[in-house]
Design a protein that fits this description.
- Keywords: Signal.
- This is Lipoprotein LprG.
- The protein has 7 helices and 12 strands.
- The relative contact order is 0.23.
- The chain has a 12-stranded mixed sheet.
- It has a domain at about 5-40 and about 70-185 and about 230-255.
- With about 260 residues, it is α+β, with helices and mostly antiparallel strands.
Length: about 260
């Protein structure tokens, strides 16, 4: 087994920026909205074997997949090492809807999926970055801000790029990407790492080729995934509410913008 799911998730997250047509390399400072975490392995704290710690790797993978798919909601935060600058994200995965907030080069973007309806929102910095990319005049930039600031764009059609974003913020689809059948049944198994405390939770680890997955030894839920500088942290299982559709006064029809 290899760990392509971290790279797949990272690539999918970047779609949220690409699909807006905004320039992620805008000349602005990086705004790190997610708590800073070390790129090294979590500090080790030996614990007594319990729960998953005594189970074989394939059993751990299967139980973690089931526990993840069964979760009614979870919060996922982290950082992706993108050539345009580190991208931070804060995503709510919930049955019935999900939302992702992404920040890169100081500009933030949000995507909200309610069923198959998708909404985009651009921060003021993102709108200004887009205006700069299009070489808009000051008057044109001001007009863009009046139109888009604090508004959600309702996408009129779900194409491949939009679907990837929906998959990213929908728990069932996201975790099926993380745990493909080959990962749990037929592919070569990763190595099991010694138990340790990760984000305050006793975890068992699975590692391969510099990537790692840390799993709650008691509940089998994901706690952290890492691959180099890419980090995904999971918390608040069953505690984060599903997002709701924006108020009608905040919604713009994407059809008028070709979206």
């Amino acid at each position: 087994m290899s760990f392509p799911w971290i790279r797949t998730a990272a690539a999918a997250a970047l779609v949220a920026l690409i699909a807006t047509g905004c320039d992620s390399s805008a000349d602005t400072a990086v705004e790190n909205t997610a708590p800073t975490t070390s790129t090294k392995a979590p500090a080790s704290t030996p614990v007594k074997p319990a729960g998953l710690e005594s189970q074989p790797v394939r059993t751990i993978m299967k139980k973690t997949r089931l526990a993840s798919l069964a979760a009614s909601s979870v919060r996922m935060r982290g950082t992706i090492d993108d050539p345009g600058g580190p991208m931070t994200f804060d995503i709510t995965l919930a049955k019935g809807g999900g939302q992702g907030d992404f920040t890169v080069a100081g500009a933030s973007y949000s995507v909200r999926a309610i069923g198959r309806t998708v909404y985009f929102q651009l921060s003021e910095a993102a709108i200004r970055a887009q205006a700069k990319t299009e070489k808009s005049s000051a008057a044109e930039t001001a007009q863009m801000l009046r139109l888009l600031k604090n508004k959600w764009i309702k996408v009129s059609k779900v194409d491949k790029d939009i679907q990837e974003m929906v998959d990213l913020v929908t728990p069932g689809r996201f975790f099926k990407t993380v745990f493909g059948e080959d990962d749990t049944d037929t592919a070569a198994a990763p190595r099991k790492a010694a138990a340790r405390m990760v984000d305050g939770v006793r975890c068992v680890g699975l590692t391969e080729d510099g990537a790692s997955m840390w799993i709650d030894a008691t509940t089998a839920r994901l706690v952290r995934m890492t691959d180099g500088k890419n980090q995904f942290r999971f918390s608040d299982y069953g505690k984060v509410p599903a997002p709701k559709a924006p108020a009608k006064s905040q919604i713009l029809d994407g059809r008028t913008m070709g979206l």
